[in-house]
């Protein structure tokens, strides 16, 4: 009986998924009928267009060019291509068609998004992710197929035509456009075939690849501002998993035509880890976030539902991408250069409804009651500055780069002279109000309150609170290929899903994303004091030498709402503002880089003096108690000894025993065992690191160390910050200083998860 029920359930599940796919197709057809637009005949075999809106790819992107398909591209030919794509995709998702290696920096655990791998030496760049998602297959298909919903890099996706395969699957022809991440390269577009079907085992597959060429020519030529990229067989395999959700396999395999970009940018377009971070892992994180919200674990934050926050963050990021790219079919046109060519100016005429009355620009002073917008943007190369570190500084020290005097000059040029008298007055008010912090999406959304502007009599300004909506991504992530950005837009106090947003900000993209030299990085650094005093404050985790991204591209884009007749004047002042910001950031970058990479002719200490003294006493007391050297045969300087201890294979910890031991130091192996960083080390609860048996024996071991000066620890376990159990073969504990009995050191030998 159970077997019959299982078979019946599988049959019903397959029928339900097929009905969902048919429902999606019917919805597309109804949308076409309601639009009352003429169908485009693609061939004589019945392949029909399903998307003919006013801004469709056929009429808008192609500038009324006729879509030319190959003569043999009827439904039967497309179905054959679809089946071939399916076979190739499955070989990548579950087989060995691509040589996969683990994504560097990814650690498995309860908080991990799943298993992530990247290609090693394959044609193009490729990434694969596998994870459990608490959603049913039909919902996952619906979310993933709507790529612009979860990928802010996807500018547009149009379904050009559809047909049905002989097996009942859906074949779609897609045209997609992807934003460029910097101002130094052109955006990419794709013309692909997408195939959605249900396999015999009830697994759902959505696979996709670029449509083959006909007689050597693209079937849909790319617009002038785009470079045609190629998508190899990619897609999603979704396996129902009991009643808890689905196991999802994601594969992205592309050729982004790196030969078309400047030499300095090619590593960005040849990096599989970058593709994994931007697309593959982004999709998996989005699914897990939606599943988390569906489970009801998320509650409204400041009155905003999770779906509203997702919409706002997506709009913020998409608006910033639009500012970086400034494409002509969005209404942008370039202004002549002033001869220096370092700052590009583009202008656009916006509908009045897009920018609300009383809003302010990124400089927090300029009213946005205007009929146009001007964008000033630039990109520059940085050396030895990790993206997360720079963006974190820009977020926390806005006064270091925002020039209020230039803002007041722009305000005066727009006819708001009373503002110009407020030179030198700080424009930043209270601390940011956190709206959302998503560990899954690795992003932070906050609201910044600014000081109110001066009231003047002519009716233009009045006293009110001004706010910036600010989106930060990549702040806590420095893994391979991860970029970081700070995006902000002026808003009113009543934050809503459909409020107008004019995004400006910064993006830092690492260029050196090799698989061998990138690792997660944690730092404790007083950035403000470094800039003010020129001093060096270095934490142990900063001493990673070449493990930090050696080169990165910083892209800056600021948008200035203004009246059309003031474009020339505002352009001059906008260039001045951006150049001032660039100069400030270069000063910051030089200070940060000097801390990370000291000159070769200077002998720098890899830690603070206090930490060096602590390590020296740990080594001396170990030799005193056990009669042997911890670092055998080494008598180099304390700098060298510190590095040797830091990279020692065994986990070495140091703590102060109070009511409960408080960790003050751990070498890299110790941080790995505890799955934490130097920043978070002191926040760990010692008792939570012990299991029940360890808690019982802890007091006995502690008494022995305090009385005898040292103790040998039997085989045991420690629980990491993520809840994983790390076992060690043996351990030792000893007093670090005879005059400070409360300072103890521990070493756990041959630990593993």
From TrEMBL:
Record-linked SUPFAM superfamilies: Bet v1-like (SSF55961)
UniProt cross-references to Pfam families, sorted A to Z: MEKHLA (PF08670), START (PF01852)
Signal peptide positions (record): none
Keywords: DNA-binding, Homeobox, Nucleus, Transcription, Transcription regulation
Top-rank taxon: Eukaryota
Molecular function per GO: DNA binding; DNA-binding transcription factor activity; lipid binding
Boundaries of every START domain copy: 71-299
InterPro entries: HD-Zip_III (IPR044830), MEKHLA (IPR013978), START-like_dom_sf (IPR023393), START_lipid-bd_dom (IPR002913)
Designated name of the protein: START domain-containing protein
């Amino acid at each position: 009986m159970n077997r019959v029920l299982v078979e019946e359930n599988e049959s019903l599940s397959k029928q339900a998924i097929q009905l969902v796919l048919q429902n999606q197709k019917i919805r597309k057809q109804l949308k076409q009928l309601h639009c009352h637009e003429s169908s485009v005949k693609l061939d004589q075999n019945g392949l029909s267009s399903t998307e003919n809106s006013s801004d469709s790819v056929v009429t808008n992107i192609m500038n009324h060019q006729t879509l030319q398909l190959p003569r043999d591209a009827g439904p039967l030919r497309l179905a054959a291509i679809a089946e071939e794509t399916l076979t190739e995709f499955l070989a990548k998702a579950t087989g060995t068609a691509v040589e996969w290696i683990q994504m560097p920096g990814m650690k498995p655990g309860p908080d991990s998004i799943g298993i992530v791998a990247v290609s090693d030496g394959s044609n193009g760049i490729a990434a694969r992710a596998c994870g459990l998602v608490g959603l049913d297959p039909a919902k996952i298909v619906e979310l993933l197929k709507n790529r612009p919903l979860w990928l802010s890099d996807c500018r547009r996706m149009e379904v050009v035509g559809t047909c049905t395969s002989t097996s009942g699957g859906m074949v779609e022809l897609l045209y997609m456009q992807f934003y460029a991440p910097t101002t130094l390269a052109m955006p990419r577009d794709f013309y692909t075939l997408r195939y959605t079907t249900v396999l015999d085992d009830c697994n759902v597959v959505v696979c996709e690849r670029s449509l083959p060429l006909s007689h050597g020519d693209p079937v849909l030529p790319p617009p002038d501002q785009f470079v045609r990229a190629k998508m190899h067989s990619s897609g999603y395999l979704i396996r129902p998993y009991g009643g808890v959700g689905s196991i999802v396999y994601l594969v992205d395999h592309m050729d982004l035509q790196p030969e078309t970009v400047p030499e300095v940018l090619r590593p960005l377009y040849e990096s599989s880890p970058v593709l994994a971070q931007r697309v593959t892992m982004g999709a998996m994180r989005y699914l897990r976030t939606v599943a988390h919200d569906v489970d009801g674990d998320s509650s409204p934050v400041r009155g905003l539902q999770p779906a509203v926050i997702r919409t706002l963050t997506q709009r913020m990021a998409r608006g910033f991408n639009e500012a970086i790219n400034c494409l002509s079919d969005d209404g942008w046109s370039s202004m002549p250069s002033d001869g220096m060519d370092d700052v590009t100016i583009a202008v656009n005429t916006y509908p009045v409804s897009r920018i609300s009355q009383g809003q302010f620009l990124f400089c927090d002073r300029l009213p946005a009651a205007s009929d146009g917008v001007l964008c000033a943007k630039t990109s520059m190369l940085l050396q030895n500055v990790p993206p997360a570190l720079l963006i974190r500084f820009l977020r926390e020290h806005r006064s270091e780069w925002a020039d209020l005097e230039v803002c007041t000059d722009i305000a005066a040029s727009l006819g708001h002279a009373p503002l110009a008298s407020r030179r030198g007055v700080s424009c930043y008010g209270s601390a940011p109000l956190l709206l959302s912090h998503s560990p899954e999406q690795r992003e932070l959304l906050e609201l910044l309150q600014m000081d109110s502007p001066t009231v003047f009599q002519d009716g233009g300004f009045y006293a009110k609170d001004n706010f910036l909506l600010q989106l930060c991504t990549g702040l806590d992530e420095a893994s391979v290929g991860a970029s970081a950005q700070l995006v902000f837009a002026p808003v009113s106090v009543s934050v809503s899903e459909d409020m107008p947003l004019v995004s400006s900000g910064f993006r830092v993209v690492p260029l050196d994303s090799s698989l061998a030299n990138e690792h997660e990085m944690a730092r404790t650094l007083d950035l403000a004091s470094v800039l003010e005093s020129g001093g060096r404050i270095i934490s142990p985790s900063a001493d990673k030498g070449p493990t930090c991204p050696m080169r990165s591209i910083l892209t800056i884009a600021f948008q200035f709402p203004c009246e059309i007749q003031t474009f020339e004047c505002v352009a001059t002042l906008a260039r001045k503002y951006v150049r001032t910001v660039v100069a400030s950031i270069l000063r910051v970058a030089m200070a940060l880089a000097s801390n990370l990479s000291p000159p070769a002719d200077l002998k720098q200490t890899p830690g603070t003096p206090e930490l060096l003294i602590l390590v020296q006493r740990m080594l001396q007391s170990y030799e005193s108690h056990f009669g042997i050297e911890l670092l055998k045969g080494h008598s180099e300087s304390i700098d060298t000894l510190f590095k040797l201890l830091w990279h020692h294979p065994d986990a070495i910890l140091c703590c102060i025993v109070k009511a409960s031991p408080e960790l003050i130091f751990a070498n890299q192996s110790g941080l790995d065992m505890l799955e934490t960083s130097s920043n978070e080390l002191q926040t760990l609860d010692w008792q939570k690191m012990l299991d029940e048996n360890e808690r019982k024996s802890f007091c006995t071991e502690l008494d022995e160390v305090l009385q005898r000066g040292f103790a040998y620890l039997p085989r045991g376990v420690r629980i990491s910050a993520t809840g994983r159990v790390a076992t060690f073969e043996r351990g030792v504990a000893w007093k670090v200083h005879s005059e400070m009995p409360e300072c103890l050191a521990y070493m756990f030998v041959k630990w593993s998860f």
